[in-house]
Amino acid sequence: MRISISIETAIKAILKNKRRSFLTIIGIIVGIAAVITIVTVGRGYEKYSVKQLLDSEDVKNNRTTISFSPEDDDNFAKSSFSYFNQHDLDLVRSVPGVSEAQYEVEKPDKIYRQESVALSKGPQSLKIHLVSGTGENVVAGKKLSSADIGNKVVTVSDKVVKDLDPKASNNDIVDKTAEIGGESFLIVGVFESDLIDTTRFEMNKSTYDHYFPGSDNKNIQITVPSDQNLTKVADQVVKKLGKQGSVKSLGNYEFSNTAAMTNDISAVLQMLTLIVSFIAGISLFISGVGVMNMVYTSISERIKEIGIRRALGATEKTIQMQFLLEGLMLTLFGGIIGYLFGELFAFIISKFMKFDFEFDPFVAFLAIGISVLVGLVFSYIPSKNASKKDVVELIK
Fold first, then answer.
1. Tens of pLDDT along 317-347?
2. pTM recorded for the entire structure
3. Residue 272 contacts by C-beta under 8 Å, 6 or more apart in sequence?
4. Runs of H (alpha helix) within the chain
5. Which GO terms describe its molecular function (predicted)?
6. By the 8 A CB rule, do 128 and 115 touch?
7. What is the phi/psi pair of residue 351, to 5°?
8. Dihedral over alpha carbons 39, 41, 45, 46 (to 10 degrees)
9. Nearest to 44 by CA among 283, 371, 352
10. For residue 64, which of 215, 263, 201 has the smallest C-alpha distance?
Protein backbone atom coordinates (compact mmCIF):
# COMPACT_ATOMS: atom_id res chain seq x y z
CA MET A 1 0.00 0.00 0.00
CA ARG A 2 1.33 3.40 -0.91
CA ILE A 3 2.17 5.74 1.98
CA SER A 4 -0.33 8.35 0.76
CA ILE A 5 -3.16 5.78 0.95
CA SER A 6 -2.01 4.74 4.44
CA ILE A 7 -2.05 8.37 5.61
CA GLU A 8 -5.52 8.89 4.10
CA THR A 9 -6.79 5.73 5.81
CA ALA A 10 -5.27 6.83 9.13
CA ILE A 11 -6.95 10.25 8.94
CA LYS A 12 -10.30 8.66 8.14
CA ALA A 13 -9.94 6.30 11.11
CA ILE A 14 -9.19 9.25 13.42
CA LEU A 15 -12.12 11.30 12.09
CA LYS A 16 -14.45 8.32 12.40
CA ASN A 17 -14.07 8.52 16.19
CA LYS A 18 -13.84 12.28 16.59
CA ARG A 19 -14.84 12.44 20.25
CA ARG A 20 -12.45 9.70 21.33
CA SER A 21 -9.64 11.18 19.23
CA PHE A 22 -10.21 14.64 20.67
CA LEU A 23 -10.20 13.38 24.25
CA THR A 24 -6.98 11.47 23.56
CA ILE A 25 -5.09 14.44 22.12
CA ILE A 26 -6.13 16.88 24.90
CA GLY A 27 -3.16 15.69 26.96
CA ILE A 28 -0.84 16.12 23.95
CA ILE A 29 -2.16 19.65 23.38
CA VAL A 30 -1.69 20.62 27.04
CA GLY A 31 1.77 19.03 27.26
CA ILE A 32 3.08 20.54 24.02
CA ALA A 33 1.56 23.95 24.82
CA ALA A 34 3.22 23.93 28.27
CA VAL A 35 6.64 22.93 26.90
CA ILE A 36 6.47 25.45 24.02
CA THR A 37 5.36 28.27 26.34
CA ILE A 38 8.14 27.56 28.83
CA VAL A 39 10.88 27.17 26.20
CA THR A 40 9.76 30.26 24.23
CA VAL A 41 9.51 32.45 27.33
CA GLY A 42 12.79 31.09 28.72
CA ARG A 43 14.75 31.69 25.49
CA GLY A 44 13.12 35.08 24.93
CA TYR A 45 13.88 36.31 28.44
CA GLU A 46 17.43 34.95 28.20
CA LYS A 47 18.04 36.99 25.02
CA TYR A 48 16.47 40.02 26.65
CA SER A 49 18.67 39.71 29.76
CA VAL A 50 21.89 39.27 27.77
CA LYS A 51 20.99 42.16 25.47
CA GLN A 52 20.30 44.38 28.48
CA LEU A 53 23.64 43.54 30.04
CA LEU A 54 25.80 43.68 26.91
CA ASP A 55 23.74 46.31 25.08
CA SER A 56 24.79 44.53 21.86
CA GLU A 57 23.45 41.92 19.46
CA ASP A 58 26.88 41.10 18.03
CA VAL A 59 27.25 37.36 18.62
CA LYS A 60 30.76 37.12 17.09
CA ASN A 61 32.42 39.45 19.60
CA ASN A 62 32.30 40.13 23.31
CA ARG A 63 32.99 43.52 24.82
CA THR A 64 33.88 44.80 28.22
CA THR A 65 34.87 48.12 29.75
CA ILE A 66 38.23 48.97 31.30
CA SER A 67 38.01 51.72 33.92
CA PHE A 68 40.35 53.54 36.28
CA SER A 69 39.55 54.32 39.94
CA PRO A 70 41.76 57.03 41.50
CA GLU A 71 42.83 56.51 45.12
CA ASP A 72 41.95 60.15 45.83
CA ASP A 73 39.01 61.30 43.67
CA ASP A 74 39.18 64.96 44.74
CA ASN A 75 42.88 65.43 44.08
CA PHE A 76 42.72 63.50 40.82
CA ALA A 77 39.79 65.66 39.63
CA LYS A 78 41.78 68.81 40.40
CA SER A 79 44.92 67.52 38.63
CA SER A 80 45.66 67.72 34.90
CA PHE A 81 45.81 63.93 34.51
CA SER A 82 43.45 62.09 32.18
CA TYR A 83 41.97 58.72 33.01
CA PHE A 84 43.27 57.32 29.71
CA ASN A 85 45.32 58.65 26.79
CA GLN A 86 46.72 57.44 23.47
CA HIS A 87 49.60 55.66 25.22
CA ASP A 88 47.10 53.57 27.19
CA LEU A 89 45.09 52.75 24.06
CA ASP A 90 48.26 51.52 22.31
CA LEU A 91 49.13 49.39 25.35
CA VAL A 92 45.67 47.80 25.40
CA ARG A 93 45.73 47.08 21.65
CA SER A 94 49.06 45.24 22.06
CA VAL A 95 47.53 42.65 24.43
CA PRO A 96 46.97 39.28 22.65
CA GLY A 97 43.25 38.59 22.14
CA VAL A 98 42.19 42.24 21.89
CA SER A 99 40.80 42.85 18.38
CA GLU A 100 39.75 46.46 19.02
CA ALA A 101 40.17 49.11 21.73
CA GLN A 102 38.67 52.58 21.80
CA TYR A 103 37.35 55.17 24.18
CA GLU A 104 33.90 54.08 25.23
CA VAL A 105 31.26 55.72 23.02
CA GLU A 106 28.16 56.23 25.08
CA LYS A 107 24.63 56.47 23.76
CA PRO A 108 22.73 59.48 25.12
CA ASP A 109 20.27 57.23 26.96
CA LYS A 110 22.94 54.74 28.11
CA ILE A 111 25.40 56.84 30.08
CA TYR A 112 26.40 55.34 33.41
CA ARG A 113 29.00 56.15 36.05
CA GLN A 114 30.23 54.46 39.22
CA GLU A 115 30.61 56.63 42.33
CA SER A 116 31.21 55.92 45.98
CA VAL A 117 27.97 56.27 47.98
CA ALA A 118 27.73 56.54 51.79
CA LEU A 119 25.40 53.71 52.87
CA SER A 120 24.36 52.70 56.38
CA LYS A 121 26.84 49.78 56.22
CA GLY A 122 29.66 51.92 54.84
CA PRO A 123 30.71 53.39 51.48
CA GLN A 124 30.05 51.35 48.33
CA SER A 125 30.59 52.03 44.63
CA LEU A 126 27.17 52.12 42.92
CA LYS A 127 25.91 52.63 39.38
CA ILE A 128 24.42 56.01 38.41
CA HIS A 129 22.37 56.57 35.25
CA LEU A 130 22.95 60.02 33.79
CA VAL A 131 19.88 61.42 32.04
CA SER A 132 19.67 64.43 29.76
CA GLY A 133 15.90 64.94 29.97
CA THR A 134 13.22 63.01 31.78
CA GLY A 135 14.10 60.16 34.14
CA GLU A 136 12.35 56.90 34.98
CA ASN A 137 8.78 56.90 36.25
CA VAL A 138 8.74 56.83 40.05
CA VAL A 139 6.75 55.02 42.73
CA ALA A 140 7.30 57.83 45.27
CA GLY A 141 8.12 61.53 44.97
CA LYS A 142 8.71 62.91 41.47
CA LYS A 143 10.83 61.87 38.51
CA LEU A 144 13.73 63.89 37.11
CA SER A 145 12.80 66.41 34.44
CA SER A 146 14.49 69.07 32.31
CA ALA A 147 13.67 71.55 35.09
CA ASP A 148 16.22 69.72 37.29
CA ILE A 149 19.18 70.47 34.98
CA GLY A 150 21.97 71.78 37.18
CA ASN A 151 20.03 71.12 40.40
CA LYS A 152 21.72 68.98 43.01
CA VAL A 153 18.97 66.33 43.05
CA VAL A 154 18.75 62.56 42.34
CA THR A 155 16.19 59.79 42.23
CA VAL A 156 17.05 56.43 43.81
CA SER A 157 16.20 52.80 43.08
CA ASP A 158 13.78 51.09 45.45
CA LYS A 159 16.57 48.49 45.93
CA VAL A 160 18.86 50.98 47.68
CA VAL A 161 16.33 52.71 49.98
CA LYS A 162 16.98 50.34 52.90
CA ASP A 163 20.74 50.60 52.35
CA LEU A 164 20.55 54.37 52.72
CA ASP A 165 18.23 54.26 55.73
CA PRO A 166 17.17 50.85 57.17
CA LYS A 167 14.06 52.38 58.76
CA ALA A 168 12.87 54.34 55.74
CA SER A 169 10.14 53.41 53.26
CA ASN A 170 10.02 54.64 49.66
CA ASN A 171 8.00 57.69 50.73
CA ASP A 172 10.17 58.36 53.80
CA ILE A 173 13.42 58.58 51.80
CA VAL A 174 12.06 61.41 49.60
CA ASP A 175 13.46 64.84 50.61
CA LYS A 176 16.38 63.23 52.46
CA THR A 177 19.95 63.46 51.19
CA ALA A 178 22.40 60.91 49.79
CA GLU A 179 26.16 61.41 49.89
CA ILE A 180 27.59 60.55 46.47
CA GLY A 181 31.29 61.02 45.76
CA GLY A 182 31.60 63.24 48.83
CA GLU A 183 28.76 65.54 47.71
CA SER A 184 25.24 65.66 49.21
CA PHE A 185 22.31 65.31 46.81
CA LEU A 186 18.61 65.78 47.59
CA ILE A 187 16.51 62.67 46.89
CA VAL A 188 13.37 63.74 45.00
CA GLY A 189 11.93 60.38 43.98
CA VAL A 190 12.16 56.57 44.07
CA PHE A 191 12.01 54.46 40.89
CA GLU A 192 11.36 50.74 40.57
CA SER A 193 14.18 48.50 39.26
CA ASP A 194 13.65 45.19 37.47
CA LEU A 195 15.44 41.97 38.36
CA ILE A 196 18.63 42.52 36.34
CA ASP A 197 19.01 46.29 36.39
CA THR A 198 21.89 47.34 38.68
CA THR A 199 21.26 51.11 38.38
CA ARG A 200 20.86 52.61 41.85
CA PHE A 201 20.66 56.36 41.14
CA GLU A 202 19.53 58.71 38.39
CA MET A 203 21.12 62.12 38.06
CA ASN A 204 20.98 64.85 35.43
CA LYS A 205 24.12 64.63 33.25
CA SER A 206 24.80 68.37 33.49
CA THR A 207 24.65 68.11 37.28
CA TYR A 208 27.08 65.19 37.26
CA ASP A 209 29.52 66.96 34.90
CA HIS A 210 29.44 70.02 37.16
CA TYR A 211 30.22 68.18 40.39
CA PHE A 212 32.38 65.41 38.88
CA PRO A 213 34.30 67.08 36.02
CA GLY A 214 36.67 65.25 33.70
CA SER A 215 34.44 62.24 33.11
CA ASP A 216 35.06 62.16 29.32
CA ASN A 217 37.25 59.31 28.05
CA LYS A 218 36.86 57.75 31.46
CA ASN A 219 36.59 54.22 30.12
CA ILE A 220 38.10 52.12 27.36
CA GLN A 221 35.98 49.51 25.63
CA ILE A 222 37.78 46.42 24.35
CA THR A 223 36.44 43.94 21.81
CA VAL A 224 37.40 40.28 22.03
CA PRO A 225 36.32 37.56 19.55
CA SER A 226 33.77 35.13 21.00
CA ASP A 227 36.21 32.22 20.72
CA GLN A 228 38.56 33.97 23.17
CA ASN A 229 38.13 34.01 26.95
CA LEU A 230 37.01 37.59 27.63
CA THR A 231 37.76 37.42 31.35
CA LYS A 232 41.36 36.26 30.84
CA VAL A 233 42.05 38.83 28.09
CA ALA A 234 40.56 41.67 30.18
CA ASP A 235 42.62 40.52 33.17
CA GLN A 236 45.78 40.70 31.04
CA VAL A 237 44.81 44.22 29.94
CA VAL A 238 44.36 45.34 33.56
CA LYS A 239 47.73 43.84 34.58
CA LYS A 240 49.52 45.53 31.69
CA LEU A 241 47.96 48.92 32.48
CA GLY A 242 48.82 48.39 36.16
CA LYS A 243 52.51 48.06 35.18
CA GLN A 244 52.74 50.55 32.30
CA GLY A 245 49.56 52.71 32.36
CA SER A 246 49.89 56.53 32.28
CA VAL A 247 48.40 56.98 35.80
CA LYS A 248 49.32 53.59 37.30
CA SER A 249 50.68 55.15 40.50
CA LEU A 250 47.46 57.12 41.23
CA GLY A 251 44.88 54.35 41.46
CA ASN A 252 43.73 50.98 40.17
CA TYR A 253 42.56 49.66 36.80
CA GLU A 254 39.65 47.25 36.66
CA PHE A 255 37.25 45.73 34.17
CA SER A 256 33.52 45.12 34.16
CA ASN A 257 32.97 41.38 34.07
CA THR A 258 29.61 41.67 32.31
CA ALA A 259 30.30 38.76 29.98
CA ALA A 260 30.79 36.42 32.91
CA MET A 261 27.51 37.67 34.38
CA THR A 262 25.69 36.97 31.11
CA ASN A 263 27.13 33.46 30.99
CA ASP A 264 25.94 32.83 34.56
CA ILE A 265 22.47 34.25 33.86
CA SER A 266 22.16 32.24 30.64
CA ALA A 267 23.20 29.06 32.43
CA VAL A 268 20.69 29.61 35.25
CA LEU A 269 17.81 30.43 32.86
CA GLN A 270 18.63 27.45 30.65
CA MET A 271 18.69 25.15 33.67
CA LEU A 272 15.36 26.50 34.96
CA THR A 273 13.81 26.11 31.49
CA LEU A 274 15.10 22.53 31.30
CA ILE A 275 13.76 21.60 34.75
CA VAL A 276 10.31 23.11 34.20
CA SER A 277 10.13 21.59 30.69
CA PHE A 278 10.93 18.18 32.18
CA ILE A 279 8.04 18.55 34.62
CA ALA A 280 5.72 19.57 31.76
CA GLY A 281 7.04 16.59 29.79
CA ILE A 282 5.54 14.23 32.36
CA SER A 283 2.08 15.15 31.02
CA LEU A 284 3.32 14.17 27.56
CA PHE A 285 4.28 10.73 28.88
CA ILE A 286 0.82 10.27 30.37
CA SER A 287 -0.71 11.45 27.09
CA GLY A 288 1.45 8.94 25.23
CA VAL A 289 -0.05 6.14 27.33
CA GLY A 290 -3.48 7.42 26.26
CA VAL A 291 -2.42 7.26 22.61
CA MET A 292 -1.21 3.70 23.12
CA ASN A 293 -4.54 2.77 24.68
CA MET A 294 -6.45 4.29 21.77
CA VAL A 295 -4.37 2.39 19.21
CA TYR A 296 -4.98 -0.86 21.14
CA THR A 297 -8.74 -0.09 21.19
CA SER A 298 -8.72 0.69 17.47
CA ILE A 299 -6.97 -2.60 16.73
CA SER A 300 -9.44 -4.63 18.81
CA GLU A 301 -12.38 -3.01 17.00
CA ARG A 302 -10.89 -3.76 13.55
CA ILE A 303 -9.72 -7.34 14.02
CA LYS A 304 -11.74 -8.65 11.06
CA GLU A 305 -10.58 -5.79 8.84
CA ILE A 306 -6.96 -6.67 9.62
CA GLY A 307 -7.65 -10.36 8.95
CA ILE A 308 -9.29 -9.66 5.58
CA ARG A 309 -6.47 -7.38 4.49
CA ARG A 310 -3.88 -9.98 5.52
CA ALA A 311 -5.84 -12.66 3.61
CA LEU A 312 -5.87 -10.43 0.52
CA GLY A 313 -2.09 -10.09 0.60
CA ALA A 314 -1.30 -7.22 2.97
CA THR A 315 2.10 -7.73 4.58
CA GLU A 316 2.93 -7.46 8.29
CA LYS A 317 4.84 -4.27 7.52
CA THR A 318 1.77 -2.74 5.85
CA ILE A 319 -0.47 -3.52 8.85
CA GLN A 320 2.11 -2.16 11.30
CA MET A 321 2.57 0.99 9.21
CA GLN A 322 -1.21 1.53 9.16
CA PHE A 323 -1.60 1.69 12.97
CA LEU A 324 1.75 3.40 13.46
CA LEU A 325 0.52 6.19 11.19
CA GLU A 326 -2.76 6.47 13.10
CA GLY A 327 -0.89 7.08 16.37
CA LEU A 328 1.56 9.40 14.63
CA MET A 329 -1.15 11.48 12.94
CA LEU A 330 -2.99 11.74 16.25
CA THR A 331 0.01 13.13 18.16
CA LEU A 332 0.96 15.36 15.21
CA PHE A 333 -2.50 16.98 15.21
CA GLY A 334 -2.25 17.50 18.96
CA GLY A 335 1.30 18.84 18.61
CA ILE A 336 0.33 21.44 16.00
CA ILE A 337 -2.62 22.67 18.06
CA GLY A 338 -0.49 22.66 21.22
CA TYR A 339 2.27 24.60 19.44
CA LEU A 340 -0.19 27.31 18.35
CA PHE A 341 -1.57 27.61 21.89
CA GLY A 342 1.97 27.65 23.34
CA GLU A 343 3.07 30.47 21.03
CA LEU A 344 -0.10 32.41 21.88
CA PHE A 345 0.53 32.06 25.63
CA ALA A 346 4.20 33.03 25.17
CA PHE A 347 3.15 36.12 23.19
CA ILE A 348 0.79 37.20 25.98
CA ILE A 349 3.44 36.58 28.67
CA SER A 350 6.03 38.57 26.67
CA LYS A 351 3.78 41.61 26.90
CA PHE A 352 3.78 41.40 30.70
CA MET A 353 7.52 40.60 31.02
CA LYS A 354 8.48 43.34 28.54
CA PHE A 355 10.65 41.28 26.17
CA ASP A 356 10.23 41.02 22.40
CA PHE A 357 8.35 37.96 21.18
CA GLU A 358 10.11 36.39 18.19
CA PHE A 359 9.32 33.38 16.02
CA ASP A 360 11.89 30.75 16.90
CA PRO A 361 12.34 27.92 14.34
CA PHE A 362 13.94 25.81 17.07
CA VAL A 363 10.70 25.87 19.08
CA ALA A 364 8.63 24.86 16.03
CA PHE A 365 10.97 21.94 15.30
CA LEU A 366 10.87 21.02 18.99
CA ALA A 367 7.05 20.82 18.96
CA ILE A 368 6.98 18.68 15.81
CA GLY A 369 9.87 16.53 17.04
CA ILE A 370 8.24 15.79 20.40
CA SER A 371 4.90 15.03 18.75
CA VAL A 372 6.47 12.61 16.27
CA LEU A 373 8.56 10.97 18.99
CA VAL A 374 5.56 10.42 21.30
CA GLY A 375 3.51 9.05 18.40
CA LEU A 376 6.20 6.62 17.27
CA VAL A 377 7.19 5.42 20.73
CA PHE A 378 3.67 4.78 22.04
CA SER A 379 2.24 3.36 18.81
CA TYR A 380 5.09 1.01 17.99
CA ILE A 381 4.23 -1.86 20.37
CA PRO A 382 0.44 -1.99 19.60
CA SER A 383 1.06 -1.74 15.85
CA LYS A 384 3.73 -4.45 16.06
CA ASN A 385 1.35 -6.76 17.94
CA ALA A 386 -1.39 -6.14 15.35
CA SER A 387 0.93 -7.13 12.49
CA LYS A 388 1.97 -10.37 14.23
CA LYS A 389 -1.54 -11.75 14.75
CA ASP A 390 -2.38 -15.04 13.05
CA VAL A 391 -4.51 -14.63 9.90
CA VAL A 392 -6.74 -17.62 10.66
CA GLU A 393 -7.56 -16.36 14.18
CA LEU A 394 -8.25 -12.90 12.82
CA ILE A 395 -10.96 -13.99 10.38
CA LYS A 396 -12.69 -16.53 12.65
1. 888 888 888 888 888 888 889 889 988 988 8
2. 0.53
3. 42
4. 3-16, 18-54, 73-78, 86-93, 161-164, 170-173, 205-211, 230-244, 258-301, 303-311, 316-353, 361-388, 391-394
5. transmembrane transporter activity
6. yes
7. -70, -35
8. 0
9. 352
10. 263
